[in-house]
């Protein structure tokens, strides 16, 4: 007996393993609209960070500065005794105090230089150039691991040591690119609460956080809105509609991650005031830091709750993008924190799958893009290899992006070849540096450039930079798309809401497109019948419901009427003869 239309479906992997819906994120994240939005967000964020870094960065302290001199310190300590003794300060004490002040200020500068230092800065202690600051580097100059094409070739052609080194560099550089949006937010927060950070650096970090949230509240919101409608299967949404959706709710997008940070800031200010009062002898020792220490612990618990809850920051934007008018700032905050604390293992598992799968597809995108540019350059340079060696196109790639090893890939085997090495930032962070392999050969060939050579290289650098931003934008697009998928999964787990429940505005499609319009019923032929024209009757169309045509109108022919017999008129009567007429004989 055949199964009816309501028969139970077969086994579904996605029904048994809901987390497999994350595998849809690759196709959704490849949407050119999302790549363009992500690339624009990366560029805007980097420009703002560069401006802030230039404004807040300061030079390294000088040991010979007046604030570290014995004369200045002696005036400060004039009339004072050493703590715990009746002895006065000596010149040796003044020197020791100056050295300690300088060492403390120098360490604070190291932190600032690691974050915002320019590329041409020199470490006064080592007299060596320091790498550009973490938040001052352009997106195309940040180190993000080896080039995927070079990684693949080295892994295949090299020995065991080369493969291990290439794989380690890939893990340490490429995979963190997937969570870069989260890292870009959490690193300034972590640095702000770290010891040994100066007041100016903390203000700088605060503005970095504000700018980061302001930028990705818009661009991340647009990506999650596009992804939410796509993943729910509720129909297409245009980029204009997504932008309008986010613009009308932009304040909620901005405040969602800022509320927990503001709560943490209020608690810190309260503890600062509390600690200032605790400096009073006896009152601070016994009352504030003794009997009332549980208040300090409670404040620490509050900060820890929200700091850990920031791990759910990627869920805030999808909440607003999915729920629409039924959600606001506090709903986005509560959902992101509650989902993490109510089902932490599911949350971690979903992100583990997303990062692992994302690493694979990101490697594919990076490899494909790098290979496309490389083979294009190689093919167009074949004529120069045989006819004009000096016109090989490598010289046009001198402004290629350094990130992902693009400059290393495109300049290899040329006089402009660069080599990879490592350096240590002032704060002890190990970074990768690309330098000229043969500076003399590079300078000699570079001096032979005409203006059009430089201009052409600049144009190539522009297009490569655009392609690079689109390629890097995929990792951001995948991150926010995966965050939307994780939100659907967590909402299903905690709130038992179906993934197709997405808020749609009036100007957005509520249902999938209607089926094609059925053909119209044939019209009844018209024509003069019995001298009277007939009206053409067609079936009315009422979209979008299917139209059932009415039965055709049958026109009966008119009855046949026999013509009457012909009427024979009688002959006219003969005229009477006139008197003048003579009878005819």
Automatic annotation (TrEMBL):
TM annotation in the entry: 36-58, 203-228, 258-280, 287-313, 348-375, 449-468
Location of the region described as Disordered in the Swiss-Prot/TrEMBL record: 67-90, 503-536, 553-585
Composition bias, Pro residues: 510-521, 553-576
Keywords (A to Z) from UniProt: Membrane, Transmembrane, Transmembrane helix
Name by which UniProt lists this protein: Uncharacterized protein
Basic and acidic residues bias: start-end ranges: 74-84
């Amino acid at each position: 007996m055949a199964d009816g239309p309501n028969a139970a479906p077969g086994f579904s992997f996605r029904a048994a393993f809901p987390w497999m819906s994350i595998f849809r994120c690759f196709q959704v994240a490849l949407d050119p609209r999302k790549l363009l939005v992500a690339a624009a967000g990366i560029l805007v964020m980097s420009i703002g960070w560069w401006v802030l870094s230039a404004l807040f960065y300061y030079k390294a302290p000088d040991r010979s500065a007046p604030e570290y001199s014995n004369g200045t310190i002696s005036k400060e300590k004039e009339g004072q005794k050493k703590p715990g003794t009746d002895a006065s300060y000596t010149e040796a004490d003044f020197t020791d105090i100056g050295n300690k002040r300088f060492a403390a200020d120098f360490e604070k500068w190291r932190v600032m230089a690691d974050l915002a230092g320019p590329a041409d800065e020199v470490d006064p202690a080592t007299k060596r150039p320091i790498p550009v600051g973490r938040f001052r580097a352009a997106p195309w100059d940040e180190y993000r691991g080896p080039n995927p094409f070079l990684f693949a070739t080295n892994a295949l052609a090299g020995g065991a040591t080369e493969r291990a080194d290439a794989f380690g560099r890939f893990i340490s550089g490429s995979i963190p690119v997937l969570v870069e949006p989260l890292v870009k937010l959490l690193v300034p927060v972590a640095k702000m609460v770290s010891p040994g950070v100066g007041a100016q650096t903390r203000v700088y970090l605060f503005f970095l956080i504000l700018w980061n949230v302001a930028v990705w509240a818009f661009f991340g919101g647009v990506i999650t809105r596009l992804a939410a409608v796509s993943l729910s299967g509720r129909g297409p949404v245009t980029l204009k509609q997504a932008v309008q959706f986010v613009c009308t709710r932009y304040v909620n997008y901005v405040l969602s991650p800022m509320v927990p940070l503001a709560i943490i800031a209020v608690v810190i200010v309260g503890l600062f005031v509390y600690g200032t009062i605790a400096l009073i002898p006896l009152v601070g020792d016994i009352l504030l830091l003794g009997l009332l220490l549980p208040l300090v612990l409670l404040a620490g618990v509050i900060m820890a709750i929200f700091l850990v809850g920031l791990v759910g920051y990627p869920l805030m934007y999808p909440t607003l993008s999915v729920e629409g008018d039924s959600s606001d700032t506090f709903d986005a905050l509560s959902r992101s924190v509650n989902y993490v604390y109510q089902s932490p293992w599911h949350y971690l598992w979903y992100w583990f799958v997303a990062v692992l799968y994302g690493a694979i597809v990101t490697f594919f995108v990076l490899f494909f893009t790098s290979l496309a540019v490389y083979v294009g350059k190689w093919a167009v340079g074949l004529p120069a290899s045989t006819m004009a060696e000096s016109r090989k196109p490598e010289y046009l790639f001198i402004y290629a992006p350094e990130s992902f090893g693009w400059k290393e890939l495109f300049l290899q085997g040329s006089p402009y070849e660069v080599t990879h090495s490592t350096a240590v930032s002032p704060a002890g962070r190990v970074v990768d540096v690309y330098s000229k392999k043969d500076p003399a050969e590079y300078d000699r060939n570079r001096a032979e450039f005409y203006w059009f050579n430089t201009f052409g290289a600049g144009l190539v650098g522009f297009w490569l930079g655009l392609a690079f931003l689109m390629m890097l934008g995929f990792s951001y697009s995948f991150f926010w798309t995966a965050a939307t998928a994780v939100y659907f999964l967590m909402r299903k787990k905690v709130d038992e809401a179906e993934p197709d429940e997405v808020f749609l505005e009036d100007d957005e499609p509520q249902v999938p497109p209607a089926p094609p319009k059925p053909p119209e019923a044939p019209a009844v032929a018209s024509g003069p019948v019995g001298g009277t024209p007939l009206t053409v009757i067609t079936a009315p169309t009422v979209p979008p419901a299917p139209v059932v045509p009415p039965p055709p109108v049958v026109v009966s022919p008119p009855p046949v009427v026999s013509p009457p017999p012909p009427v024979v008129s009688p002959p006219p009567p003969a005229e009477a003869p006139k008197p003048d007429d003579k009878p005819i004989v």
